[in-house]
Structures are given as C-alpha cells and as structure tokens.
Amino acid sequence: MYSASDLKKGLKLKLDGEPHVVVEFNFVKPGKGQALYRTKLRNMITGSQFERTFRSVDNFEQADLQEKKMQYLYIDEGKYCFMDTETYEQVFLAAEQVGDAKNYLIDNLEVDILFFENKPLGVTLPNFIDLIVAEAEPWAKGDSVSGNTKPIKIATGHQILVPPFIAVGDKIKVDTRTDEYITRVK
Amino acid sequence: MTRLSRPAGKKTALWLRARMLQAIRAFFFSQGYLEVETPLRIPSPLPEAHIDAIPSGEWFLQTSPEICMKRLLAMGYERIFQIAKCFRGGERGNLHLPEFTMLEWYRQDADYTQMMEETEDLLTFVAGELSLGNALAFRGDMILLKRPWPRITVREAFARFSDTPLEEALKREIFDEILVSAIEPRLGRNRPTILYDYPISLGSLARAKKEEPAVAERFELYLGGMEIANAFSELTDEKEQRRRFAKENSHRLSCGKTAYGPVEPFLRSLGRIKSAAGIALGIDRLAMVFTQAETIDDVVTFTPEDLEMESDI
C-alpha cells in the first residue's frame, strides 16, 4: 500500500481498478489547513490525463505491473501476436496498444511487453535495432554531397532517412525513439 | 554522489534575503519592538489538527514560536518580535520546507485590523529599503504595493471564486480543497490581498468576533497567489482555549495522529495577557517574492535534499 506521502512524479498506482502513473505532483497546504497532494495522473490503459487531489489519509494500492521479454511473431486481423520464448505462451495486443512501435515490429524481434495484473498493456522496443533495407533508390551520381540523405523503407514499410550510399539488402542500425539512422552494420 | 548544481541567481537571492532581514529588524526597532529569542526545543507543541511537530529527544522542535512569545506577552512584554527556525513534519513542496524561517510579532492593545495595517507598513518599508519601488514583479504579475491593500472576507471569497458557498464547503469538508484550487490562486495577483474573518472552527487560537461569534478574528496575507502571513486577535480566555485544544486533539486522534499537550503553563498564562494580536510571516516566501524565485529552494542556502549531495564550488 502507498500513502499520500509516497506520491511523487513517476509513481505507478492502482486507481479505480486501473494502473495510473503520476505525471505531475505538488504538495500544498493552506495555512492552518490540511496537507493536500495535487497530482496529474495518466491512465496507463486509456492514456487519458486528469487532475486529482489527495489527502494525507488517502491510501492506494501499488499497480501490479511487470515487464516480460517476448518475441514478435505476426499480425492477424489487426492483432499483434507476441510469444514468451521459454514457455511458448502467446499474448495479443491491439493496434492502439502497440501504437508507433508497429513501425519497427519485424518478425522475431525481441521486445518488452508490459503486463498489468497479467494482462498485456503495451510494448517497449529496444532503443536500437538492426534492420534490413527493403526498398531504396539506387545511388545516383551527384548525391554524394555531404549531409545529403535519401528515404528508404524497411520491411514494415516504415520510412527512414539514410546516407545515399545505403542500398537494398544493407543492414543498418536505427534509433527507434527518434527514427534516426546510426550506422551501417557489417 | 550526485552533484548539486548552484543556480546562478542563488548568491544574489541570498544577498537580497540578508538585506531583507536587516530591513525587517530596522522596522521593528523603529516601532519600539524588542527582538527576542525563545527556545527551539519545547516540551509539546500546541494541539493543532494539521500541524505535526518533529520530535527532538523527549521533547519537540517548535512548529512556531507562539507558545513562548505569548508567555512573554503575559509577562508584560508589550511589543516583541522574533525571527526563528520552525519545524513541521511531512511538509515539503514548492512552497514548503520541513525546516523554515518564520517572523512572528506580537503587540499588546492591538487587534487583527491593526496588524493588517502594520503588515502593510512593514512590507512597504522593506520594499523601499531594497529599492524595489512600489511594484513587485512576481510569477508573471506586477503586484502594486499601493495602500490600502484590498481585503476580502472568507465568505466573500467563496461567493466570488467558488461554485460552492462557504457553509456547504465546511459541511462537506472540502474547505481546504476549494481554498487551494479556486481561491488562493486568485489572491494577491495585482495587489497584496488580505483574506479575513475565518469560520471559528478554523481559528483555534483566535478570538471570536464580538458581534459575530461564529467568526474568528483571523487573517491571511496573499502575494501572487501565495500565502505569506497568518494573524489573529489572540484568544486570551483560558477555558475557551482548553475547549478548542481538546477539539483539535480529538481531530488529530481521529486521523490516527498523536494528541499534543499538556501545555499547562501556556494555558495558565493566557488570562494575564491584555488584549493582543499576533502574526506569523514566512520569511522564505517573502524572500521568494522579493527575488522573483520560482520555488522556496531558490531562497535558502541548503534544502534537506541538498544536504545529501556534494555541492559545486
């Protein structure tokens, strides 16, 4: 159990049966009045944000959250399937739960799946992954001016800006948080 | 160890704070006040529902110098002031430190309306000494110090700024929530503002108004939406004070807190106080206003968190 005095930015707690993360926090206390804990919370399932004020007598449960390494298998009828490689247990996430991570979900990619009370909530990609270039225009003469980039596509159809010398079939390292090309991988 | 980064403005803020303290002392000496120092460690704090003291051995660190100051009043010290460290458990936020500095002054033969005027005198004098003129930039507003400062009763404030009238807020026990969310942010934005005449249940050390016994002669001063000071016409009726403390203690117990007291020497001295008024003003917060600080951290040498970090030279 948490009490109001445990509240701080980043704390994850269970409210009305759902996991919430504290995104803003401030302690206030009027003159002779009681301590109040003003927070902005984000519902980790719906993503909605709202303000809530707690009193020092308020208690809340910890949110039972766990992360598990799983492998991405396939998408079927809008459901993304992930598998625990040790137990072969499979879970499914809807497109809105996967969000932008879909851009990098290539077959067999190892990702972190977040569970709330054993129900899968969302997916976290590795910060850097190696990808094969699926589509690219050939290197045309005159493109070699330094700083020049060209768009290529990876297997998921996601577009990334790379240096002009990158060709179809090359393996490249990409930062999944910023869509930035890092280097060509030998 | 994490390193503590020194904001560039800290040294400037500390210089202004020091000059502010100098000016405050000059003001009180010019008004015939005696500066006193009373013990920080006391046998028990006064029982107040929402103020928690920090234990120090068998005793406690003071939550305010009120007990000793009022005993001095009872001993015939007519005008006294003190700038003292106070300690309150569990209080940490943008405007709160568990150890903070309070200015308290008490004056015999005065009531809370005279304290309102004296607070105007004090802040106007200090702003002048700091060459800040009569307008203070703070939190995106310009606060004009031109006197007299607007006054608004607690009842009017609820009627004006809240959808919930005062009586209903008290009945539903959401007075504090409405105060911090709907009322305080609107007070003192362009002029220092005095919020006064609190429900008697919210002024356990304040005298009731003669013509309106349900109202306590209490006021708070706001600057830039921030509470700066709290004042009373002092309650000097021992019996009544005992009743009020019992109520505060039973509230403490109902919240799972320990009761405070006894505070017999304090209670027995009350009857010897002639009519008097007193006020407590947060020095750190006043320094915030004068230095345009964002948080209370910006106007103190070290926060408790700083003490656990190495500092840059």
Can you offer a commentary on this structure?
The complex is a heterodimer of chains A (186) and B (313). With 186 residues, chain A is an all-beta fold. Chain A is 2% helix and 54% strand. Chain A has one helix and 16 strands. In chain A, a hairpin with a 2-residue loop joins strand 10 and strand 11. Chain B is of the alpha+beta class. Helices cover 33% and strands 25% of the residues of chain B. In chain B, the strands form four sheets. In chain B, strands 2, 6, 7, 10, 11, 12, 13, 14 and 15 form a nine-stranded mixed sheet that branches. A three-stranded antiparallel sheet of chain B has the order 3-5-4, with no helix packed on it. Chain B has a two-stranded parallel sheet with strand order 1-16. In chain B, helix 1 crosses helix 9.
Main β-sheet description of chain B: 9 strands, mixed
Order of helices and strands of chain B: EHEEEEHEEHEEEHHHEEEEHHEHE
Q: Overall mean pLDDT score of chain A?
A: 91
In helices, the fraction of residues of chain B equals 25-40%
Shape of chain B: globular
The SSE order of chain A reads EEEEEEEEEHEEEEEEE
Q: Tell me the fraction of residues in β-strands of chain A, as a range.
A: over 45%
Q: What integer is the average pLDDT of chain B?
A: 95
Biggest interface, chains and residues, is: A-B, 16 and 26 residues
Q: Fraction of residues of chain A in helices?
A: under 10%
N-end to C-end Cα span of chain B: 15 Å
**Structural class given helices, strands, pairing of chain A?**
mainly beta
Low-confidence stretches of chain A: none
What is the number of strand segments of chain A? Answer: 16
How many helix segments of chain A? 1
Number of helices of chain B: 9
Derived structural class of chain B: alpha+beta
Q: What is the radius of gyration of chain B?
A: 19 Å
Primary descriptors:
heterodimer, A: 186 residues, mainly beta, six-stranded antiparallel beta sheet, five-stranded antiparallel beta sheet, 1 helix, elongated, B: 313 residues, alpha+beta, nine-stranded mixed beta sheet, three-stranded antiparallel beta sheet, 16 strands, 33% helix, disordered N terminus
